Amino acid sequence: MSKALAPLLEKGDVVILESTSPVGATEQMVEWLAEARADLTFPKYHEPDIEADIYVAYCPERVLPGKVVEELISNDRIIGGMTKESTNKAKEVYRIFVEGELLETNSRTAEMAKLTENASRDVSIAFANELSIISDKLDINVWELIELANHHPRVNILQPGAGSVVTVSLLIHGLLSIKTLMKLKSFELLAK
Question: How many domains does one find in the chain?
C-alpha cells in the first residue's frame, strides 16, 4: 500500500490507516513512505512537535458488515495521530461524515484500542459459548440462564451461537499483541 500511495502524496495531504494492525504499524507505514518520498517530511511519534509535510493517523475501523454506511456515520471514532496536528487534520476528514464522537489519542493507543476491542468481543463470545456447553451438560436452559444473569446491572452476557470463537480475529489480534509485547520484552514481565 505504501509503495502505491507514495507517488501520489503532496504537501498537506492526510494519510489515515484504517485497518486492524499491530501496535507500531502506523509508524512502520510512515517509515516506508519517508523512504519512498525523501522530498517530503513525515511525522515522528517520538517527535510530536516537529512540523511535517504529511499528516498521518490511525483510526480503527468500526463497522459491521451489512451496516457499513449507517455505522460509518453514527459510530464514535478513535482518531490516533502520529502528532497532535495529525490528529486534528484526521478529525477534519472524519467530521465531514461522522455524527458520532471523535475521540482523540495517539496512533499507538488507537492501534491497541482496536486490538483490545476485538479481543474483548472474542472473549465475550467464547464465554457465552462455554456457558451453552456447560448448561447443556447440566440440563440447564442457557437462554433462561443468560436472561436471568443479565438482570444484574453490570452483567451483559452475549447469546451463544454456532461455530467457534477461534477465528482469524482472535488468532491474529492475540498474536499481534503478543508479538508487540515480546518486542518490548514486557511479555517476560507479564509471565512472571
Answer: 2
